[in-house]
Amino acid sequence: MLDDLTAVIASGTDEDKSIERVWGLKDPAAFAKTLMNMGVSAVTSPNFSLFNDVPRWDNLYNMKRIALCWQQFQSAGLHSLLHVNARTDQDWNRWIEFIEARPEISGVAFEFGTGAGAQSREGWHRDQLCRLAQSISRPLELYVRGGLQVLGELRTAFGNANIKMIDSRPFMKAMHRQAGEIAASGKLEWTPAPTAFGQELDDLLALNIFQCRLDVLQGTRRK
Fold it and tell me: Is the pTM higher than 0.90?
């Protein structure tokens, strides 16, 4: 059971054909109101993909759509976190200019779980996020999914209190009856934790949340 004071953030990644449903909403404001009525306190804007095998204008169009979805949710009164997706240095320059000119943007979102987490690209995105934090004249929160191995540098750039890790591991591992534990090596390891028929998973979920929080705070890699 979640505490009544628990903040609920609506965030997710999926294949673009699913994310397109957000772009196709006839009344984004009504959708935002529905989320707020459900108790959602913040939402990350859709992370429309920036592919490297399409004409360049396709990337620019999807960046524009990310910004427009952010604006629609924010204008409806739902705290919206701008998802910054980029392929080039100039893309990041555009995001920096966009964010600096809009003081209502208090937080951004980024995910290392897919293409940005590739070994050839992860370091570049880390450096660009750090440059973003250093280029904006006010503090920004960063809601990040994945990227534990670059978390130390991001903490330094954004400030430790401004980093928010979105982590699905506690829930997914609990659903698969696995318990987390920080091993002597410092890495988070998972072991089977079978439950009796009908047994609730609250305690297992709480344990996994605690262990994943330690994992994040230590900046360790996932096993």
Answer: no
In angstroms, the CA 138 to CA 164 distance is: 17
Strands 178-182, 188-192: pairing is: antiparallel
- What is the b/e burial string over 92-108, where b = at least 16 CB atoms within 10 angstroms of the residue's CB? bebbbeebeeeeebbbb
Token pair of 74 as six digits: 């924010």
Residue 135, pLDDT above cutoff 90: yes
Q: What is the pLDDT of residue 221?
A: 46
40 strand-pairing partners: 8
Q: Which two tokens stand for residue 64?
A: 């524009």
Residue with tokens 């993909």: 49
Structure tokens that stand for 75 in this block: 């204008």
Task: Please state at what angle helix 119-135 crosses helix 89-100, rounded to 10 degrees.
Answer: 30
Number of neighbouring beta carbons within 10 Å of residue 21: 10
Residue 16 pLDDT greater than 70, yes or no:
no
What H or E segment, with its residue span, contains residue 145?
strand 141-145
For helices 16-23 and 56-75, angle between their N-to-C axes, nearest 10 degrees = 50
